[in-house]
Write a structure and sequence with these properties.
alpha/beta; TIM Barrel; Recoverin, domain 1; two-stranded parallel sheet; 14% strand; elongated; binds zinc ion
């Protein structure tokens, strides 16, 4: 049996923190419902004390969505936790996500605390959260730049206090996959009570490593991934849900894990979030980009038309795309042109086809893409 990895979606919390994004309550609920259908395990719906809108989002999703854990973020402060506890009251499965920084940088400049003070503050926060739920996730902000020995002490203490999930955020997107994997492995090996918690990857994409680091963390023993649809989030964004779950599927040989995500809904989900947030997806984005299954060069088109797997490792239908797309450009060859013409219902004897191919190349040199209308003109001219 493959090991289960829990999918923690933070599109509505970390994703909504993207500069330029503001979702209304009905839009959040629409995304929340789609996430449940998609099969995520946990929805982080907001940071209840931060604004009335975030409180309402957590509270409404807690009321409306069943069969999923609803999570609210807090700082390691009693007032934050009380407000989150209140917002989460109607939830079938509430989770409180609390914690604070562990890097010397955050302790010194942001929190202005010693390591000991921060450790005590974190433990007290977990104890306080237990008044509301046993489902407590503890985040150690900026773990990626922290002293591992201190991280081990924090993890041991907060698990002893009742935390059941430990989030190891690479908040600043600083680590590389090998380092992030060793960080997770180090925690699991060196913390005596590490078997009492699930470890979670929360990675940012500042160096383009978010997905790679998250996958490395899973190889290191993490069993929860914190992700957003399309990878939206602060600065360069978070880890993209669609990339991680598709990698688990395509490389089952390597990961040996499974999620409850319905992959065939990925493209629909991606388009919905892009539409509602106004954060457009780049054409060449992995898995869900408009070009993810489009082939333009003659050599690739010829290969894909003979056998799809020559140039495609992901079957388009698996993630909800209609089919591989043969895009006609000046780099396209005879096989691609013949295929597109056949799709339109045309077939020509060899000599006539060669004539058309020459004309096609002339047209293609003047445009980025030769569209169906252009082809129609070509064959009727
Ligand atoms: Zn984050």
């Amino acid at each position: 049996m493959a090991d289960r990895v829990f999918v923690f979606d933070t599109t509505l919390r970390d994703g909504e923190q993207s500069p330029g994004v503001r979702l209304s309550m009905p839009q959040k609920l629409e995304i929340g419902r789609a996430l449940v259908k998609l099969g995520v395990d946990i929805i982080e719906a907001g940071f209840p004390i931060s604004s009335p809108g975030d409180f309402e989002a957590v509270n409404t999703l807690a009321k409306e969505l069943k069969g999923v854990q609803i999570c609210g973020l807090t700082r390691a402060r009693e007032k934050d936790i009380d407000v989150a506890g209140e917002a989460l009251k109607p939830a079938e499965h509430p989770r409180i996500h609390t914690g604070l920084g562990v890097s010397d940088n955050h302790l010194q400049y942001k929190l202005k605390m010693t390591r000991e003070q921060a450790l005590e503050t974190g433990v007290n926060a977990v104890r306080h959260a237990k008044k509301y739920t046993d489902n407590i996730e503890y985040f150690m902000e900026d773990s990626g730049r922290a002293d591992p020995d201190y991280v081990y002490r924090v993890v041991e203490a907060v698990i002893a206090a009742g935390a059941t999930t430990i989030n190891v955020p690479d908040t600043t997107g600083y680590t590389y996959p090998g380092e992030y994997r060793r960080l997770i492995e180090g925690i699991i090996e060196n913390v005596p009570n590490s078997d009492k918690a699930v470890f979670s990857c929360h990675c940012h994409n500042d160096l383009g490593m978010a997905t790679a680091n998250t996958l490395a963390g899973v190889l290191g023993g993490a069993r929860q991934v914190e992700v957003t649809i399309n990878g939206i989030g602060e600065r360069a964004g978070n880890t993209a849900l669609e990339e991680v779950v598709t990698a688990f599927q395509i490389r089952r040989d390597l990961f040996g894990v499974e999620t409850h995500i319905d992959l065939s809904l990925l493209i629909e989900m991606s388009r919905m979030v892009a539409g509602l947030t106004g954060m457009m997806v780049q054409r060449n984005k992995a898995v869900v980009g408009a070009n993810a299954f489009a082939h333009s060069s003659g050599i690739h088109q010829d290969g894909v038309l003979k056998e799809r797997s020559t140039y495609e490792i992901i079957a388009p239908e698996m993630v909800g795309a209609l089919k591989s797309e043969i895009v006609l450009t000046a780099r396209s060859g005879r096989h691609g042109l013949r295929h597109r013409l056949a799709e339109m219902g045309f077939s020509f004897p060899e000599e006539r086809f060669e004539e058309l191919y020459d004309k096609f190349l002339q047209v293609a040199d003047t445009k980025t893409e030769v569209l169906e209308d252009d082809l129609r003109e070509l064959v009727t001219a």
